[in-house]
Amino acid sequence: VGDATARDLGEFGLIAAVTARLPLTEAVLLGPGDDAAVVAAPGGRVVATTDVLVEGVHFRRDWSTGYDVGRKAAAASLADVAAMGGTGTALLVGLAAPPDLPVQWALDLTDGLRDECALVGAAVVGGDTVTADRIVVSVTALGDVDRWVTRAGAEPGDLVVVAGALGHSAAGLRLLETGVRSGALVDAHRRPNPPYLAGPALAEAGATAMCDVSDGLVNDLGHVARASGVRIDLEAALLHDDAVGLEDVLAGGEDHALVATVPAPVAGCRVIGRVLEGSGVTLDGAPVAGGWEHFA
Amino acid sequence: VGDATARDLGEFGLIAAVTARLPLTEAVLLGPGDDAAVVAAPGGRVVATTDVLVEGVHFRRDWSTGYDVGRKAAAASLADVAAMGGTGTALLVGLAAPPDLPVQWALDLTDGLRDECALVGAAVVGGDTVTADRIVVSVTALGDVDRWVTRAGAEPGDLVVVAGALGHSAAGLRLLETGVRSGALVDAHRRPNPPYLAGPALAEAGATAMCDVSDGLVNDLGHVARASGVRIDLEAALLHDDAVGLEDVLAGGEDHALVATVPAPVAGCRVIGRVLEGSGVTLDGAPVAGGWEHFA
User: Fold this and answer.
1) Is ipTM strictly over 0.90?
2) With CB atoms 3.0 to 4.6 Å apart as the test, which of A134, B179, B213, B254 could cross-link to B169 if both were Cys?
């Protein structure tokens, strides 16, 4: 595609170029190119979630490639499906972009979405492309779920467990802000690695509540504590991470770790605290706060 | 909410205010507020489609209220579900908005989404709210479908039929551009009226191909002609509309009329042409072009 822009290809040319790169799966009964897609939902139900990423807020084109943004955008939604105990099957992608967007960037975005989908066996099945000043990527993930786990079932006596990294993305972002352009933490910011398999595994192991860490551990566990009517006490020693400080572990979002409350330990998940009677989130018994909020 | 802005309420306050206005339906197994929603898909499959509306491209805040934009955004996606022969069940909404967005605008948007959903029995089940310079609304609609109809099955000998208005939205937009602020055509631009029931009815009547008119009749029938390997000949006399000129009927998008090819006339739908061997779209036998393309 060389130096071609979205304007050069036009809407339909861009859609054709993007669609040509997308493999389908057995669950896709009708793929991209029509008014809507048709996706199998063998359990007679579908898990669905939408995330929106905005250039300059969630990513910068000089810090992340189109491929990185595709990986990250798909990960944000597929992690939400996993956090319900489900497995992603299909992605729909809305792309708002300026007419001078290099076509190569859109193709790289597509490849990133495709490769992140491949980790769970999902496929990109549809989307929309429109004009805007800045890039906005909205991703809707659909998924299958057997037993779904909300934020509302945590019980006093449960353990709090986590799968996946905490605070790595936030630490990586800070490194990018200081001029560092490579390394494991920077990569963790550009392309988070949600522990997709842990979602269904935790659901099957009897998790009483679960969510993904997208706004920061304390913020997200705050939702669980509120929805469940319990207090969640974290233990600082159990949150120790050789790579990042405790503040990033507590407040960093966007790693899309999965945090759950369970009656008993679950293989592959670290215990980081326990559920008590009361309200709010505490660290070694003392109130704690931290996390990310939009419009602040 | 008075003069409060999104910044005043914060992300979670805004989400709570929006969610409180949303009624659910029996198909919603788990509604807004968790990582993802769970929606019934009784047929073991789900129709899914995403549309993105951008401020300044698809709507202007001085020409359309938040309520209008909600109606229009929901209509664009729900019409795509109808165009497959399906019925919408659930909407997921991504809202990117500046921090100074009046909360009332977001609530009005929500009411518009809710009321358009009510026309087909669907519910808003989830979404995401993020910061951006300009408003971008992305709507994903999910739906049930029995027999789905693509763009690829039109056969020579079929009739071309349409349900719903053609060109009214485009004519209304031109009136808005010249300073007119009320009237049926202006209303048609602000809040299109897709003929939702005609979608499943046409599928049941044996429609061989179907799509909604979002990019203009000739453009959208061009997709059908290409996908089906046929020529579609429209008859100018059958396209006459007392309210708008032939050019708007042929090239105007966003009314979300449904156009289908059928072996025999269908009650409630107007015949506007026929399917022939060949390729492309013709008007009374002569080539014709027209429609809307992004990035142009």
Assistant:
1) yes
2) B254
